[in-house]
Amino acid sequence: MKILFDTNVVLDVLLNREPDAVEGIKLFSAVENKIIQGFLCATTITTIDYLCTKAIGRKPAKQAINALLELFFIAEVDRNVLVAAIESDFFDFEDAVLYHAGVHVGVDGFVTRNIKDFTLAKHPIYIPSELSGIIQSSLD
Q1: 82: buried, middle or exposed (CB in 10 Å: 19+, 13-18, 0-12)?
Q2: Percentage of the chain exceeding pLDDT 70
Q3: Most buried one in 42, 48, 55, 138, CB count within 10 A?
Q4: What's the CA gap between 37 and 30, in Å, rounded?
C-alpha cells in the first residue's frame, strides 16, 4: 500500500506533539518495516524544514530532514501537479498540491489529521488511527 503522509502527521512525530505522535509513530514504523510505502510531498519537506528549524534549531532540523529522505519516497511537484492543483476545486492550494502530487505518483491513499481539507478527494483519506487499524488488521 502506497500512502502519502500529510505534513501535520510528520510534524506530530518530529515534534512529539502529544497525543497525536503515538499514531504517527506507528505509521512511521510501518514504513520503516516496509509494511507500507510512505510518500511525502516535496513541499512537505520545505515546510518541515522551516517549522522544525524554528522549533528545535537548524542542526536537528537538518538531521530530521535527512532521516525523512532516507525513510520516505518523495512525490515531486512539477508543472503538471501545480496545474492540476490550481484547476481543482480544493479550497486550500497547499492541500491541492499535496493531493495531486500523490495522485501523480500513484499512491493508494493519504493520511492526515485534517480530513475536512480533503473532502473533494477521490482517493481514500485516512486519519492516523484508522490507517494504523487497517495495517494492524492486515497483519493479524
Answers
A1: middle
A2: 100
A3: 48
A4: 8
What is the reported pLDDT for 7? 95
Domains assigned to the chain:
2-135 (3.40.50.1010)
pLDDT exceeds cutoff 90 at 17: no
Report the distance separating Cα 122 and Cα 100, nearest Å. Answer: 11
- d(CA 7, CA 82) in angstroms, rounded, equals 18
- Listing from the earlier edge strand, what are the strands of the sheet with 73-75? 73-75, 37-41, 2-5, 109-111, 125-126
Q: Position of cell 512537505? A: 44
What is the SS3 assignment for 61? helix
Say which residue the cell 481539507 belongs to.
117
The average confidence (pLDDT) of the chain is 94
pTM: 0.94
Distances (CA, A) of 82 to 39, 74, 86: 18, 16, 6
Question: Which residues have C-beta within 8 Å of that of residue 132, sequence separation ≥ 6?
Answer: 23, 26, 27, 30
